[in-house]
Amino acid sequence: MKLTVLGCNGPYPAAGGACSGYLLEAGDTRVLLDCGAGTLAALTARMAPEQLSAVVLSHLHYDHMSDMLPLIYRMQGKGKLPVYAPDAPAEVRGLLAGAFDLRELEHAEHIGALTLSVLPVRHPVPCYAVRYTAGGKSFCYTGDTNTCEGLTAWARDCDLLLADACFTDAQWAENKPHLSARLAARMARDAGAKRLVLTHFTPGTDQAELLSQAREVYPQALLAHPGLELEF
Ligand SMILES: [Zn+2]
Ligand SMILES: [Zn+2]
Question: How many angstroms does the Cα of residue 123 sit away from the middle of ligand 2?
């Protein structure tokens, strides 16, 4: 499997950056995971979007789906791309209905060579963590979440964990919508994840601080950045 980071900001892009978007490849299967602002340009620099097997949107916050709107124009006359997304908020999902082969992420099980394991997580709108398995390797992406029952078990022994690590220790609280870098690292350690990539960076947050707090718990933690490619 191969993961390429297209964008890793939220809830808006940094100067020259992009919001959440990741390309996951397994053999001939190519899936775009989230499609925030700036990711369509980054994807198109690597491949034609119409050659995607599917798009999986962890949730329908704008920083994870806004580039789906110009993708509607790009896909005109090229067939309906399968798009897996939560069933709410209905007004956002409604923007995609008709233009794409829109499916419910909650019930997704297979995309090409990939087998999916979907877990509802804790965020202000319905959001799903998805584990992708192919050829004995597995990749886990948390989507946006704070601490959530079942998350560590869901990530057990994965080869790569891509985790929401939005907050420093000082910024994090139990009632906020995201994990801290330290809590993401704790999850990776407790799950026995072989690699950890931190993501969802708010412009202005000190990423070196996020990394050092994560590495106190999980010394091999990495920061996502646009263009990062990992094979596993
Ligand atoms: Zn987000
Ligand atoms: Zn969100």
Answer: 7
